[in-house]
Every structure is written in structure tokens, then in C-alpha cells.
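Can you please make up a protein's amino acid sequence together with its fold in C-alpha cell form to help me picture the idea?
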Amino acid sequence: MKNLLFVDDEPKVLDGLKRSLRPMREEWHMIFVTSAAEALKVFEQTSIDVIVSDMRMPVMDGAQLLNEVRQRFPHIIRIILSGHSDQEGIYRSITATHQYLNKPCETEELKAIVTRACALREILRDQPLRALVTSMQQIPSLPTLYSEVRREAESQTASMKSIAKIICRDIGMTAKVLQLVNSPYFGLRNSVSTAEEAVNLLGIDTIQALVLTEQIFKSLPTTKVSGFNTERLWQESTGTAMIAREIAKAEMAPTSMVEQSYTAGLLHDVGSLVFACNLWERYIAVIKTSKESGTPIWEEERRKLGASHAEVGAYLLGLWGLVDPIVEAVAFHHHPSDCVEKKFSPLTAVHIANMLEEELSQPRTGCRPSQIDSMYLSTLQLSDRLPYWREVVVTAQQAARKE
């Protein structure tokens, strides 16, 4: 049974939640309090899995409370409630919150988000790693791209198009804008899967505020990742993203799936950044062992760190509310046969794209390409498509060089 803590200074709101969530009492043990001070006392007495807090409260508001929770209890899933007029509060809570709910919140929506967040824990079962990922505020950006986007945001002639062009090349910034725009706070009917669309929907004022606000976007600290090839990670990620998009197009996939394939390709190795920035000494040893033994990096990660970068990345992106096809593609891109769904999807595109990107870059890097999951392709009856996908990718790369 999961332990949930609800915090709101309005007793009537809590009473409404108690009534509407009564059917969940067999699955959730729910505690309701009317202040942040009471909430902090609960944490001293009870192990909590999820906290859902109102934003506007006296003395200590929701953003302050969740920041305190993040620092003291990093394993807890943090969700905030906010009204449409409280946009400034949303900016303050971005680094402390996994998901944002619009107030008043529909009961079914709340149940779905909490249930999904708890289910994601099955992806990442190692408790220390889970606490580490749950506590993360942002994914660091490549220093050159971070500098570019700040310069553009500070410019008097800044435009959404130019900012979006930079953001969609960066792993960290893409993940963060998708986390924000897909929150129920914005009330969008359809999920957003690309950074470009997210920037357009958020608008130039919001994007400039996000870029120029400290702690929301952050540059990768190079002193912490000595021995980790950050440039190669970004090249491989953007390469995989573009190849995944071409494969999805070649399969005549719907536009939404093409977009999801690109974004999943860009984010598929985000877990590597989590390791590099938080466990870098151990991670460099893992990379070294993998190279010396010829063992796939994700196997060494599981053996020495408790999980692979795929599971770590999927858990983080799922917590942040990115859509299931992207989370699944990140989680299973090395071994797609483990995924329940057995049809062409962004997972298919990213798995093949990851292999083809490594294959095409082998002369430059000397890395051994990942092995394709032939059983998975056979199950999808797509084994004979591999030569065609190779041809499509080579043709697209040649066309790009000519532009």
C-alpha cells in the first residue's frame, strides 16, 4: 500500500479529496493536513511515497514545502496544485516538483497521475538510485548550447523560432520544457512530444523567463565529468534522433509518432547524464570496464550501479510526465523484446536508430555497434526492413550534407 500525504490550507478542499478518493482506500493510505508545518511533522512519524500539496498556503507555501521535502526526503514523489493565476508560483516550484496539477483537479486525473508515478518505481527498483533520480531538479545542458540559448533569450530581438532551434538540440532543455508544457496546469488537450511545439505553446515571455531563471536550465559542470565524452553523447543523441525520425517516416507512421521518435532518440541516453553528474567516479570505472571487456555498457551499469542508464532515464522522464511512448522507448531501447507492446512504435525507431548511428560512426569512434534485437524485429515481422532503413538513413545524411 502506498502512503500519500495531501496538504491544503482549505479544509473544504481536503474534505472533497477525502470523499472523491475514498474508492482508493484499499490501495492508498491517505493523510490530510492543513499546513506545511503539519506535513513536516508527518514525515517524522510516517514513511510517505507521494505528497500532493496546494501552492498558495500561509507561512510556508507549496513551493517552499516541496523544496524542503526534496532536500530532506529525496525519494518522495512531489506533486503540486496550482490555480491558473499563479504562474509566478509555478516558476518557483519547477525545480522542486515532478508534476503540476491545475486546481481544481479532476479526481480521475489525480488518480491516474499518482498511479502512473508509483508504477514507474517498478522500472527502477534500486532504492538508492531511485532516491537520487527523484531528487533531481534538472538535467544539465551542453555548455555551448546553454550559452547560446541564454544569449538569444537576453537579446532584444529574441524569437521563439531561434530559441526553439537551440532547445531542440539539447537533452536537458528539451526534457524540461516537455515536463512543463505537458503538465495539466496548461490544460492542453493533447500531449506535446517535441521541444519546438512546447516552445511555441509556452510563448516567448515564458520561455525567456525559464531560460533566464537560475536553477531551471543549467550548464553541464565540466569539472565533474572529466573522462566522460559529453560532446560524443550529444552527437550520438542528435544523430539517433534524426535517424529515428527518418525510420518512422519511412514506415509511414503518423506525424505524432514521427515527433515522438525524434524526441525519444534525443533523450534515449539521458540516464548516462544522471550517472555522469551524480556518480561520476563510479561511472567512469564502468565505462572503462565496458571498453576493456567488450561488454555492453548497459550490462556493466546494471552489474556495478544497480540499473542501466535506460531504466534511470525512463524513470526520470516518466516522473516528469513525458508521454508513455517516449518513456518506453528510453526504457527498452537496448532490449525492446522486454516491452509488452509488439508493434512498430518510437521504441522500434529508436532501437534501430541507435544501432545504425553507432554503426555509421564506428570509423570515427572505434566503438563496437550495439546488437540489434533480431527476435523483436522478427516478432514485428520487420526483419526484412533493415537494409531499406539503412538506405533511407544514408540517403538522408547525404542530402543533409549538401544543404
User: Anything to note?
Assistant: The two ends are 57 Å apart (CA to CA).
